[in-house]
Amino acid sequence: MQIQSPSLVVSIHDVAPSTQATVQEMIDDLKKSGVSCCSLLVIPHYHEKELLTTAPAFVTWLQEKQKEGHEIVLHGWSHLRPAALHERLWTRWMTQHYTRGEGEFYDLRYDEARAKLKLGKAELETAGFDVQKISGFIAPAWLLSKEAERAVVDENFFYTTRLHGVIDLRKKPPGFYRSQSMVYSVSSGWRRQVSLIWNEFLFRCAEQREWPLLRLGLHPPDWKFCQIRKHALAAVSRAVMKRSVMTYFQWMQEGA
């Protein structure tokens, strides 16, 4: 992939009716720091409580964001992965502790994954979005089983991402472009402190080693904590001095 200039993609995860106000605040803050467009990761049936089609004010707002240049990305169906009986220790740790029960696509079979993808696309379409223009699918917590990835391909999404990179699903085999995403963990004080140290390290690596793509993944709870918010905005303010701001879709198109 030949990218014309070093790039920055900021993604906002877990966009849903209940997070709308915070996401708008994030967008406003990011714009002041030089980020004019983000990839918005939308959950069609958030925690099995919030359907897009039952939240018309949210849908109108999301359509406005799309017109402003923000990208709509499908981000699972409900974002939930219920615990199962007799799970292996590693699986239980990944799904119930690391992701706190939200690694929805972590170990889905092909048919299960494809059914959820179809539900998500149908909900977006019913809400008034052109699903042909939604080219990306990003799994909750970036956890996507191999069978689920095959389902994503067959549902005609042309990219997905992992924590460590971006995957071009149009190619056979899929093309993998390494880029470690900055992401914060805010559920406890020690996690927040470690996140600040780790993400500053990643940022400096990206700048010193001139990574073609710098990724920042934000979640609505990040904005509850002044230090996290301040660090994220400072990072993008520094990044935009050298990097072109774009969405994942734009990045894929520019490098195609």
Mean pLDDT figure? 91
Which shape, going by the Cα principal axes? globular
Question: What Rg do the Cα atoms give?
Answer: 17 Å
Q: How can the largest sheet be summarized?
A: 6 strands, parallel
Q: Which class in CATH terms?
A: Alpha Beta
Please provide a written account of the structure.
It is a single chain. This protein is α/β, with parallel strands linked by helices. The protein has one domain (7-255): Glycoside hydrolase/deacetylase (TIM Barrel, Alpha-Beta Barrel), CATH 3.20.20. Helix content is 40%, strand content 17%. It has helices at 20-32, 56-67, 89-98, 110-126, 146-154, 189-208, 226-239, 248-255; strands at 7-15, 39-42, 45-46, 50-51, 71-74, 159-162, 165-168, 175-178, 181-183, 213-218, 244-245. The strands form three sheets. Strands 1, 2, 5, 9, 10 and 11 form a six-stranded parallel beta sheet that branches. Strands 6-7-8 form a three-stranded antiparallel beta sheet, covered by helices on one side. Strand 7 (165-168) and strand 8 (175-178) form a beta hairpin. Helix 4 (110-126) crosses helix 5 and helix 6 runs parallel beside helix 7. The longest helix has 20 residues, at 189-208. It starts with 6 loop residues before the first strand and ends with a helix.
